[in-house]
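Key idea: predict the complex, not the pieces.
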Amino acid sequence: MKNILLRERTAGDIDDQVAKVLRGLGNPEPPLNLDDVRELLRLDLAYYSSTEDGVLKEVAHRLRVAGRQVLARPALLADAIKKWSLRALYLPDRKRILIDRDLPEPKQRWGEAHEVGHSIIPWHEGTMLGDNKQSLTPSCHEQIENEANYAAGQLLFIQQTFVKDARDLVVGINAVTTLNYPLEVR
Amino acid sequence: MKMNLSKEWLTKRAARDDRAEVSAGFFNLGMLGGKVGAREETSSRLSQEQESSRLAFGRLINLWRRKKGLRMDELADKAKIDLVELIEIERNLDFIPEPRTVFQLAQVLGLSNERLLQLSGNTNVRDLSLGQEAVRFAARSESVEKLNKNEQRALEEFVKFLAER
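Result:
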């Protein structure tokens, strides 16, 4: 995926949303606890396995996408996850984040933060399409994924906290081990 | 510095790191029948439907703004979008506005964001009725009014400038 430079206004709006979440958590110390973030935003988390068909189909079975039960053809969602190698998903109508449990843990943390990003960016709601009447163009899809990545970075690095901490430390291995909190698994 | 890591450990870690991208937003189950690699396509050419829709989108914003008696900078301020984006939306058919910009305009116009996303060329059109309606709107909204004095003078000056070159 190409990195797209976000417009100032776009990044500014995302910064504001992330700041609101951090304020809601009482401006926490690092590392950010994503369980607290989900609780604040009333987001649900579930795991699936891209390598075990049974688990994936079970998850797909219980899903409704955009209010429509996928039950009729639950395998479709499972196929979609496999074909596009999706490692994490966000279902806006259920406020549910799905993570592939086969991902290494630090990547699960990144994936979860990325999906939280989708949930807090107001203009993403209309882009999480739940029907087959329209699909995002590749460039639009790329744009929203980059925006969610930016939000994930802002969350896990606790906005300016990381920069301030980095400036306070002498460059060296000690700084690297101290500053590992964005991807620290609790 | 000696790295005290076994080959087995490194191999295991490498196998776990599959470089998979984290992604979301592809809930279009209808696309399963289509090309899987479609998301990698970066065609800069708009389809005919997209062109018609995009034309109608620019015209819609332009007419709505004029109906409300707003200058471009006033609408840009109201919608909290960059002025340069608004100019591109109204005048450049190849310009596809960002999802945020469309969302902001949808809020100001009081229209459905999803419809405007489609009209602005951010989604592939499957709703043919919207595409047809967009073409009809684009054709009907083409002004047949005579030019006012300002427009006439601007046109004459520009033609004169072009002729001199």
